[in-house]
Amino acid sequence: EVQLVESGGGRVQSGGSLRLTCAASGFTFDRFTMSWARQAPGKGLEWVATIYPLTHNTDYDSSVRGRFTISRDDAKKTLYLLMDRLNPGDTAVYYCFRGDQIHDSNAIRGQGTQVTVSS
Prior knowledge:
Blueprint: E1 3-7, E2 10-13, E3 18-25, E4 34-39, E5 45-51, E6 58-60, E7 68-73, E8 78-83, E9 92-98, E10 108-109, E11 113-118
Parallel strand pairs: 2-11
Antiparallel strand pairs: 1-3, 3-8, 4-5, 4-9, 5-6, 7-8, 9-10, 9-11
């Protein structure tokens, strides 16, 4: 069974940092593109970042570029998102996705982890 389990969310003050973790199982992790997306209260799902297999090249939404870092440990089948200089606009539920088609109805994602940034 394919499974993605996020952890590491919490409450932090503006300017603080958090590291999210996504533990993957049930598929050949190192062969897949992996992404993070988020959903703020009352808003739609928003893509945050993607990391590609083999090269580990990365892409970021402009709103997080320079503050967030996506990475992966293929040996541990784990995806990470290091978030620095957080601001209240980053408050959302963060989801780990297999692939980068986050709006696909068949997209595989975890249950999400809440990140709350207070001013």
